[in-house]
Amino acid sequence: MQAVTNTELITFNNWTLRVRASQVETPRLLVLIHGWTGDENSMWVFTRGLATDHWMIAPRAPYPAEPSGFSWRPHQPETFGRPSLEALRPAADGLIRLIDEYSASVKLDALQFDLAGFSQSAAMVNLVGMLYPHRVRKMGVLAGFVPAGLESLISQRPLAGKNIFVAHGTQDNMVPIDRARASIGLLEQAGAQVTYCEDEVGHKVSATCMRALENYLSSPTGRG
């Protein structure tokens, strides 16, 4: 993993965050959320090609994971399959409160923000985008899926007018490629236009898709 530089580790309202502030006059907020067993350091590898006009925060998820790290849902050893709306919603609502309280504390405009996540947290990106579509400007869904239980939300087309970036590996054994392709269909049913990058890698983001993600996040339109 790329070394985390020019960042600050802070504790804010019972959350642990790694922060990279921006010196531009009107920065965009980019929220980086880590996957299962990750932490506040895990997502910075995805930021190396981004311009400094992003103010970035990476929160540590609220629940301990087994055998180590953290998770966006409580530990459920008896539960298999993809995390559900019910399991992830408390963390999604808490994340919105964190963003509002932190941005107010540093006088940062976060009425709309960009959001990117990997694996379990890519599911969180999809959930937050559908629950709070007016808040999320761009969505980076990396090696992830759409959580179960979103049928009623999807039918309301909450993502209409949004362009979402999705990246997945054809050799992914953690989140099979068929699930990723099915999730793209669900995002489109929810109204989104999807920019999709697929490559022959496992549970990771290829160099090609990394560049496509950087273009997507840096573009004013979000289309890369």
Write the layout of secondary structure elements.
Blueprint: E1 8-12, E2 15-20, E3 28-33, E4 54-59, E5 63-64, E6 70-71, H1 85-105, E7 113-118, H2 120-131, E8 136-142, H3 151-155, E9 163-169, H4 177-189, E10 193-199, H5 207-218
Parallel strand pairs: 3-4, 3-7, 7-8, 8-9, 9-10
Antiparallel strand pairs: 1-2, 2-4, 5-6
Question: Can you summarize the main beta sheet?
Answer: 8 strands, mixed
The parts where pLDDT drops under 50 for at least 5 residues are: none
User: What is the mean predicted local confidence, pLDDT?
Assistant: 91
CATH superfamily: Alpha/Beta hydrolase fold, catalytic domain
Q: Identify the overall geometry.
A: globular
Strand content: 15-25%
What's the helix count? 5
Widest beta sheet: strand line-up? 1-2-4-3-7-8-9-10
For the record, what CATH class applies? Alpha Beta
How many beta strands in the DSSP annotation? 10
Helical proportion, percent range? 25-40%
Rounded to an integer in angstroms, the radius of gyration calculated over CA atoms is 16 Å
Based on helices, strands and strand pairing, what is the structural class?
A: alpha/beta
Query: What is CATH's topology name?
Result: Rossmann fold
CATH architecture: 3-Layer(aba) Sandwich
